[in-house]
Input
Amino acid sequence: MEPNEALDLIKQRLSPNRYRHSLGVADTAVILARRYAEDESWAYLAGVLHDYARNLPPDQLLSIAGQHGLIKQQVELEVPDLLHGPVAALLLQNDMAATIPKAVLEAIACHTLGSVQMSELDKILFLADMIEPGRCYPGVGELRKEAFLDLDRAMLLALESSIRYCLDTGKILHPLSVQVRNAFLKQVHGVG
Output
């Protein structure tokens, strides 16, 4: 899929604010990909398309996810927005399978919660989503710096930030967030 095709496709599906966010994620993902010698065109494509299912209503997310076995935890039934990554990857695969690399679809699928075994592209998209220029929250400056120094340390910082946010705001915490955080903690600090 060519960049202009992806931009046209996503512009039709997203609100103007979400579209700007996707452009920011795409640009940030390219910069991170360049820093870590990853495929810049794949990073850009993943950034542009990562929120492909973000504006779907909760009942539609649940319906699609349920039909395709994407619901793994009870919390996803309670907070359907957590499914927008896997649902986006599924829809894109069904609609554009021949034109989107599998690695891009995998990065899109895990950009919300992460995964215990993340590729470099997965980490780049996850972090780009959290640090794109439009993001403003406590600790984002530190996370931006760390993202350009060490992807794994940045992932740990990002996951801990997300978990802290859920705790501070009384939001439901997905068990996968804890599992992925623990995996990065072991990897970064050798904690066992």
